[in-house]
């Protein structure tokens, strides 16, 4: 009896592992195929709140402007590390249960999903922005917060493993932790840990997630302020771990963005090509989009020149009136965004 149970549970574990792996391969294939056609548009927290609304059902600022959903939805799982109940919410007040429902729904419609993780500082339990020079070191094996951090990673595994189709298959997701690490503002930033410590943080995370059966994840690396390919690869965790060669770049100054964006895209697409990976502009945007033709005059002419699978703009906060990156009905760039939507190289949900 005991042996039978053991055999059955081993078989089930294998099925789980292989279905995760197969789904992951399908997702990578889809991303590669997409890059031939154009690039997907992604929006963070798109179906859960918008410029003037919070947690309504069946709403999306992007849909209200274009009649279509973004091809890619992004959510953040910051605070999953403290989550003990299904009622808990992330750092931007998105309930994890709602996030799960939206991911399943979007996947069923053929869309893609990415998750970032603004994980708390392991020493202070403060936010990701609570920087301290030894934080990374303390979560690595032998570190004083290692056990605690492994539990945090296990919470991530439990959450992603709970996101399944109706027939029980784990939904493949692009996971993008420890982002913008060439900057100094997050506790995993270059100023706060050595190259080796940063890489070990990644390796430990990916290994643990795999051990917990989360084999459906594909991984995006997204540093920013890149000098050249050598700089990009300095902290790159490795080809065996990373699937997506990403970067984050926002427009704070028009002419700087115009000159830096092509350089950054050149770096990531060159590396993606030589490492046989997928390139993506993992975060970008202009806060408040005051430039009414920004989408077709500033963003599109540059990104259309590079083989990237997607670009993602950040959230339309409902409680910060100027903190939005996608247009909503009546916003000054809304009609220009429709032109962007109609361009043959931009891919939204209906194009997938
Ligand atoms: C930042 C801002 C914050 C938010 C954080 C994590 O860029 O949007 O308001 O809490 O991302 O999503």
Characterization of the model:
This protein is 39% helix and 15% strand. By secondary structure, it is an alpha/beta fold. The protein has a single domain, classed as Glycosidases (TIM Barrel). The strands form two sheets. An eight-stranded parallel beta barrel has the order 1-4-5-6-7-8-9-10. A two-stranded antiparallel sheet has the order 2-3. Helix 7 links the parallel strand 7 and strand 8. The longest helix has 36 residues. 44% of the residues are buried. The N terminus is likely disordered.
Mean pLDDT equals 94
How many alpha or pi helices? 10
Structural class: alpha/beta
Bound molecules: beta-D-mannopyranose
* CATH superfamily label: Glycosidases
Structural domains: how many: 1
Report the top-level CATH class: Alpha Beta
Cα-based radius of gyration, to the nearest Å? 20 Å
- The end-to-end span amounts to 48 Å
| Biggest sheet record | 8 strands, parallel, barrel
Order of helices and strands: HEEEHEHEHHEHEHEHEHEHE
Low-confidence stretches: 1-6, 8-17
Query: Helical proportion?
Result: 25-40%
Number of strands: 11
Give me the CATH fold name.
Answer: TIM Barrel
């Amino acid at each position: 009896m005991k042996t039978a149970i053991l055999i059955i549970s081993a078989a089930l574990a294998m099925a789980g592992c292989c279905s995760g792996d197969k789904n992951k391969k399908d997702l990578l294939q889809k991303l590669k195929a997409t890059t031939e056609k154009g690039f997907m548009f992604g929006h963070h927290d798109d179906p859960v709140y918008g410029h003037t609304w919070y947690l309504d059902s069946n709403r999306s600022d992007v849909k209200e402007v274009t009649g279509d959903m973004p091809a890619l939805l992004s959510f953040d799982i910051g605070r999953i590390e403290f989550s003990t109940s299904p009622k808990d919410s992330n750092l931007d007040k998105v309930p994890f249960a709602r996030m799960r429902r939206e991911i399943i729904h979007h996947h069923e419609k053929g869309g893609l999903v990415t998750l970032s993780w603004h994980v708390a500082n392991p020493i202070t339990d403060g936010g990701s922005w609570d920087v301290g020079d030894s934080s990374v070191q303390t979560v690595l094996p032998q570190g004083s917060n290692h056990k605690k951090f492994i539990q945090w990673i296990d919470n991530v595994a439990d959450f992603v493993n709970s996101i399944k189709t109706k027939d029980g298959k784990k939904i493949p997701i692009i996971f993008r932790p420890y982002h913008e690490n060439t900057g100094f503002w997050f506790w995993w930033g270059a100023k706060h840990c050595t190259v080796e410590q940063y890489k070990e943080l990644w390796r430990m995370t990916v290994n643990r997630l795999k051990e917990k059966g989360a084999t459906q994840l594909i991984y995006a690396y997204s540093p920013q302020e890149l000098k050249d390919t050598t700089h990009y690869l300095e902290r790159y965790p490795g080809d065996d771990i990373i699937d997506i060669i990403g970067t984050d770049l926002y427009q704070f100054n028009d002419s700087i963005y115009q000159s830096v964006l092509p350089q950054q895209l050149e770096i990531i697409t060159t590396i993606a090509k030589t490492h046989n990976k997928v390139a993506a502009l993992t975060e970008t945007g202009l806060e408040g989009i005051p430039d009414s033709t920004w989408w077709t005059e500033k963003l599109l002419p540059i990104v259309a020149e590079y083989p990237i699978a997607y670009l993602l703009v950040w959230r339309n906060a409902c409680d910060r009136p100027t903190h939005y990156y996608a247009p909503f009905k009546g916003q000054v760039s809304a009609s220009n965004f429709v032109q962007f939507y109609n361009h043959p190289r931009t891919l939204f949900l209906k194009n997938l």
